[in-house]
Amino acid sequence: MRTRRWGRVGAALVLLCLSPTLAATSAAAAETAGCTRSGCTGKDPIVMGCDADAQVIEQINQGNDIEIKLVWSPACQATWAKVSVNPLYQQPVYAALWQTPTLGGFAAPRPTPSITTSNPSGVSPMGDWKMTSKACWNRRNDNWEPEPLLYEEGGKVIPTALINGDCTDWI
Do residues 143 and 109 touch, judged by C-beta distance below 8 A? Predict the structure, then answer.
């Protein structure tokens, strides 16, 4: 029991010593942020300085070829999608931050700039942190959500076996 008590006391002392450092880091990130909350919607996270304290909420990989992350900035309180593609990957890749109102509604994409072998990474415009979000990639187009169970296009159902892509979980 004595060891456990000292363990708790030691942890409390470490947190007490680190708290000014953590607070200073958060304050510095907040000062460099060019926008907050819904004021970030549709803006570039790098230009606005929101990538300074960016945290990956969820990440998925397609082998060694495609990596997509759902990213969040505590200072900006905004989310965005970040995609990286192996420069040797020969197929087109489209990525987007998909968002839907937390209490329900239609999902809407915020696509990244075109991902090509000469431009193998990109970030989507930011979205409102209060909305439910996910990051997706696909090989079809900017507005294609690779997750629904049934696809309809032009009045026809498209078999899901023809769809290539993946999404993080809704967060």
Answer: yes
